[in-house]
Amino acid sequence: MQIKNLLFLSILTGIITGFIIVIYSFLTDLLKFLLFFGNPIESISSLPFWYVLLVPVVSILIVNFLISKNESVKEYGVEEIAEAVVQNKMIFGIKDLFLKIFASSLSLASGFAVGNEGPSAAIGAMIASKLHPVLNLPKELLRVSISIGAAGGIASIFVSPVTGIMFAIENIAYNFVRDYVGYLIIAGALAFSVSLYFLEPLIFKYSNGKFLEYRYIFTSFLFIPVITFFIYFYLGLKNRVLRFLNFKISKKFARYKNYIFGITGGLIIGVILLISPYAAFSGHELVANLINDKFHLSFSIIFIIIVLRIVATAVSIYANAVGGIFIALMSVGALVGYGFGEVLVYYGVNIEPFYFAAIGAAVFMGVNMKLPLTAVVLALEITYDYNVIVPTAIMVVIVGYFVSLNFKINKLSFQIWSRK
What we know:
Elements: H1 2-35, H2 40-43, H3 49-69, H4 78-86, H5 94-109, H6 117-134, H7 142-157, H8 161-173, H9 177-198, H10 214-250, H11 257-275, H12 284-291, H13 299-318, H14 326-346, H15 353-368, H16 372-383, H17 386-404
């Protein structure tokens, strides 16, 4: 009976999650179009500067107001959700689910540099947690149910079933792999099948499949110190930004800090939007363009966007923007990899920069989120190219080791730092 109910939960969670994630994605695109009167990459330059500054400020104040009225709206990692539900500290309702979707869509649409994978996993987890008692499953299987929902959410928003499954396993389901991985597979596959009909996955259009070109293996060793430097730079700058915000705001204005963080973060995002829209938003479109060679950026512009995206990611989370950092980290890594490739080409090395954009995206995310297996699976699912998969597998381990020598990265589902 228990096995049958888990099977039903997997099927229902996968299908429901798939459709709700599609609605969430469409709502985000609609709000972005309405807020910026079209595609912001094209329209921002023609909008009044005061309006571009106002959009993220007003949006994040609305998000913080919703959070002040309902704590479940804020961004939680999947493991935090699991612990809260198991301990009866958090109860999710339909209203909570829709408020979270709206808050996250508004955060993303107004330019905050967060991803949609965090809320997607949380949405799947919420759905599974509501179905769990309906199907009379025992409390000790609640973490398994939430893992099933998280796998469905990630598989759906990335339109990548195996990445979603691996993400859930690496985060909170590794203790249940032997007995319960099949249910994660079902939910992930069904949620992916629904979203694939409506959403477009990240696709690497120049895949060479199983044809391995060793020049990419050799040059990837040259890439190790470069991407290690930028991960150090990211972690160091992020920590400095957050320490500054804590010192200047949290200690002086504790009671109103969320709203002050919101206004400060909104203004910073507005300025970043005016400088370069590519440095704001989730980074999904940026990654897709870089790995498919859709535009060329000078090295100086790439470096400026990297710095701006790091700042934008830090202030977005601290301003209580509802979203994860999975795709945001991928976008920084893609920029670093593409810039490295452009330098090699400049010096006469026969490689394609977009290969290193794909490698950089997977490695940067995998190291910073401490998800090496997910990074390799992500590279596999997006590219199906050994020239990306093999260097990613080598680099995510070596770079992860070098980073661990000086930084302690907490293995939380979506947040590398915690808000104080």
